[in-house]
Automatic annotation (TrEMBL):
Organism of provenance: Gossypium mustelinum
Single GO MF descriptor: terpene synthase activity
Domain Terpene synthase metal-binding: 251-471
Listed name of the protein: Uncharacterized protein
Keyword DNA-binding on entry: no
Keywords for this protein: Lyase, Magnesium, Metal-binding
Domain Terpene synthase N-terminal span(s) in chain numbering: 19-195
Pfam families: Terpene_synth, Terpene_synth_C
Amino acid sequence: MANTKGVMRPLVNFPEDLWCDRFLSLPFNNSEFESYTKQVEAMKETVKDMLVVSITDPIEKMHLVNSLCRLGVSYHFENEIEEQLNHLFITLPKLLDDNDYDLHIVALVFQIFRFNGYKLPCGLFSKFQDGDGKFKEQVMGDVKGMVSLYEASHFRTNGEAILDEALDFTTKHLRSLANQSSTSPHLREYIENALFRPYHHSMQRLEAKLYISFYEKDESRNDILLNFAKYDFNRVQLLLQQELTVLSRTQDLKSKFPYARHRVVEGLFYALGVYFEPRYAAGRNMLVKQTCLVCFIDDAYEAYGLYEELQYFTDAIERFDISSMDELPTANQKKLYDTLLHVIGEAEYLVQKEGRSYAIPYTKDERSKLSVGGSMKKMSQHLMTRLAMTQILIGMEEADQNAFHWILNSNNKFLKALQICSRLYNDIVTNEDEEKRGFKTASMCYMKQYNVSRKEAIEAFRAKIGDAWKDINEGCMRPTMGVPMQVVRATLNYQRL
């Protein structure tokens, strides 16, 4: 508790902002940006020709699609990739059956199709198993195939026992391989990265940066793709830095809310994890502002406001009307409420300008649900996830009314699985700190109910997360109830953060 002007407030000693003011005046090198842009545009047509015309072998084409995705440049060719995969999804299964392709190729093809929403049957891995349903020992010598099978197994859905077995089998043997002195440093790093964070669960922009460095050391690399990826990554990086500078200036609210955490940098990191593509710049801008706003409100409840004051503020959020500001008891609350109205007003203007006014009622409904009951810490995780989904969809022109219905449908197993993962991931990371501050955590309740240790509780949570990912994967498979794949990917990216 802290005494501010004679009032005892529950202030929390949040750590200082790590970034300070370093991004307020970050210079933008326009000539460097134009140079990268020219290189990207020139090479883009060459890569497109490789994808559509010059490469005719289906397996080679799948390798190309995989490289485009892993290098973070597939967004340039969304329509072309979908057209190619639509055709290959019809022809490749028979080709895989009729030919004796190795484990790496089969797993790679499986992974690419599942990553893009095509449910290729997992039975194609049965030829690598013995009569007892165990993977044959000889596949352990195929390190590249083992890594590919490990990555492919993370696309499993409910009832796919062969992929459950594949995950256990590859995890065990890859861990052993990573610890062997005979394993090259480059291969060891690649294996350890996959074990730490499989590609399907990774933040795509970070994975692209990492994969560029791995791909550069690959003797079979395509130098055109490598250079294209480097130029594009640097170009997008400059754009994101410029966005950060603008946001740091407009969201510099430390003087207004000195008690709160100021997380503009973290907010943009979160937003680009959802959609990094340049065309979503306006969406990222709104998402960062709304994320910072949620943080301010959360801290107002937990780290500054008094119970009586917060009752007024909760009522004002539920009414969501400018006239409610006059009833707020403190100047600080009035500043916060004014900021809330301004940020939400910006979002509403954005969707109205795009002809998507239908999105406004969804966001208002989720905000009002979230405000009921006071402290956001007490809100159930599913409401926080629903609010995050509406904030994400606001910034996407592809998100039509059907997309909002889909993601907010109470019977949507995909959304329920996201909620489970968010809650359990959050508890795994924060449970000890939260308990020190006097909050009850899910792990604490689990330990008490089942009389187990904290480590055992965390292991149980990770198993539940693994099961939830099966529902997430199922929800990403086509057809997605008429919802554009861009929307599906963005909501999936939320889980990857």
